[in-house]
Amino acid sequence: MSQLLDNVCSELQRLPGVGRRTALRLAMHILKMEPQCADSLSSSITRFRHDIRYCMSCNNLSDSDICPICSDMRRDRSTICVVEQVQDLMSIENTGQYRGLYHVLGGVISPMQGIGPSDLKIELLADKLLTGEVKEVIIAISTSVEGETTLFYLLNRLKSFPDVKISTIARGIGFGDELEYVDELTITHALRNRREVER
Question: Which residues contact 11 (CB under 8 A, 6 or more apart)?
């Protein structure tokens, strides 16, 4: 195999979910691209990696110090939705159902991976609550063990803001799931989050 091709495949394999065969397929696709398109792809990746910033207010990705969501004065500034990662923010935004602000933690507490509360942007969230403008914090993080640990820590940390309503997104059984295959923690959440059926 060509050393150049081998080098490209090795670099592509560093991406999550890309194995040897996928890397080879991507490399061959890049080779078939017009040189200008390949250059544009390479340039976009380089600019993205070197020029992207994190919003000083919410820790979202941005081209400047403040992201478009935080700078949009039409958004409800009294509500903050706390998420683990930027991808979670994007998923919620895609629904078009939420018009408040966000706060990206940058992960979840995971002692096994050496990630503690100080590694997350929890104090940045607390600083925002000190302004008194925020009336509700919606915690929208995963239901994994690490997610539950982070939720517990956040609930304890936010006790010092008694005037701020703390809520979590509804958790439970997904549409199409069969009850016999659902784990106990999910069933517990589903029972706690039950609602009355309209008749």
Answer: none
Q: Where in the chain is the domain with CATH 3.40.1360.10?
A: 74-168
Rounded Cα–Cα distance for residues 69 and 83 (Å): 14
CATH code for the part of the protein at 74-168: 3.40.1360.10
Q: What is the mean pLDDT of residues 58-67?
A: 93
Cβ partners under 8 Å of residue 104, min gap 6: 58, 59, 60, 83, 84, 85, 86, 88, 89, 121
Q: Which fold has domain 3-51?
A: Helicase, Ruva Protein; domain 3 (1.10.8)
Tens of pLDDT, residues 64-84:
999 999 999 999 999 999 999
Measured between alpha carbons, how far is residue 28 from residues 2, 46, 116 in Å?
12, 21, 42
How large is the greatest C-alpha to C-alpha distance in the chain, in angstroms? 69
Q: Which two tokens stand for residue 167?
A: 């809520």
Whether 80 and 101 have beta carbons less than 8 Å apart is answered as yes
Mean pLDDT of 83-102: 93
Q: Express each pLDDT in 121-152 by its tens digit.
A: 999 999 999 999 999 999 999 878 898 899 99
